[in-house]
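ok so i was messing around last nite and threw this chain in just to see what happens. nothing serious, just curious
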Amino acid sequence: MIITIQLFLLCSAASAQNITNPTDTLSSPASIQKYLKQQADSSYVYKKLYEWLVTSKSSNVSKHDLTLAFDRANQQQNNKIIREVKIKQVSPFAKNILDTVGVTTNNLEKNLNKLRFETQTSIIKNNLTFKNGEFSKYQKIRDSERILRSLNFITDALIIAEPDKTDSTLVDILVITQDSYPYGVNTSLSATNARLGIYSTNVLGFGLELEHSLSTVPTDNRDFGFYEHIRWENIYGSFITLDAEWSDLNRAHYINVGAHKDFFIPEIKYAGGFHVKKNHKIHDPEFEDVYDDNYDYLIQDFWLGKSILINAENFFDRSNLTFMGQTMISNYNNLSDSMMQMPHYKPNLYVFGSVSFSKRDFYKNELIYNYGRTEDVPYGFNGALSFGYNHNNAKNRPYLGAHFSLGKALIPNKGFLYFGGEYQTYLYNGHPEDSRIKLQTKYISSLKNVGRHRWRSFVSLNYVIGMHHSRPNYLFINEANEGIRALRNFNLRGTTKLVFNSENILFSSKELLGFKMAFFTFYDMAWLSTNDQLLESKPYFSLGGGIRIRNDHLVFNTIQLQLAFFPRIPPEGSPTDFNLSGEKIGQFNQFGPRKPYVDIYK
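result:
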């Protein structure tokens, strides 16, 4: 397999030939092979590239190996002055980030490419943590790659530091990005509802996400319902993200508006945000008693944090000591008579504060939640103590909380292990009230070869308990509430639960038109109780498998076809479940500073 790669004409051959304005016009593949072969004896990177380009049919070299080789090469260019930052964009339909020509002979791909706007160069530069004239820092290159890959409209990113041939104190930075194809469609169809949505994650190439959905379910005597969503990430390089949505569907009437700036990298000194949600009651007798939030409410959440960077010459280098404050205001209307008597549903003011110490870093991997693109796996730890106060016209309550999480790659190549624990409680008249404990552990195995395919397994255990309740408040073990897969029953509820999830995934080496397949099996088990005798209750199970189809270059959700069995049939349930759905990709647990209060009771 010979893939012509423009980046070496940009990074190396261009300098040797005094080319000042490199383009995508390539010399013959033979000349590229000859050049790389000449350089292979003096450079590990060129050696690996030569193997990949010329002898990949008999070599085990992968894109992942090459990106790690570039990482090692970038470290050697640390503390040199950046002369120029160059931007190179790769077509969404290119095989991967290294195929910088991305020439397609497929007429469909050609026509689809004409319909999109390439990401503006200014947007890419706004997401970099370095610029011309600064000293190159290996850590800033890694951070910038991760920031670019986190954007919804970017499939992958690679940054290469290329030393100047005549002045060893200078370096050029080449930033290569691969856009995701920005347009997508959301559809759902049932006997009572048809919904169609269209969206773009990169409007006019400015990284603006817009979504519009239309539903045929009658809404307040109208024939259609609507859903609108807008999201703008890292506005002008400020790390501020704006997010707003409006829903006027039959079972969802609300307005959601928010903006936030997180501590995305340790060097960020200040972060904060707000979130305002206005919910309207569902006027549908069939569902009025199903949803816990079926009433009018306005909830406002504001938070602000200050982080102190610790640059120590030891294990705690690039760690953070962070102080945060948070205010929440809630107002409820259209409540039942019984709910109106509960202090929780009266106008409430919450004030929280926290102090935390955290350290985090990332390493590159692949075939975890995605199907070939580079994934940034977080590891590190975060410990936090929080405190606060809750005021309403019925009672005043102090608040205490604690959080700890730890994630570590098991070396050598034994997978990844995560553990997290949280505690929350209010105090009323000296006694705990609405106390909650949550413990989680997760294990992700290393990637194994199964012939030409790859295999990985996932295991997790999740324990949650609620105590000293001041109002009815329940846990569920259905799929939507971190329970067992394929279970959609809201009739099973309790105040303590223990959930075990396991999954095995075989990533197929086969692909069709850029779509890759993964076959999976799963086995889940959950205990649920309203008392302390959790393990004495009979567990519920789900087991089964299916296939997932995904194209990492598109913004479509993963297509999942799943068949599940229930050895113990849930109340009002069926022994089997067959489902075709669009699934969002999984998310890693993060170890950065977070808001003082996050609801853990689910």
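not much to say yet. The chain has a mean pLDDT of 82.
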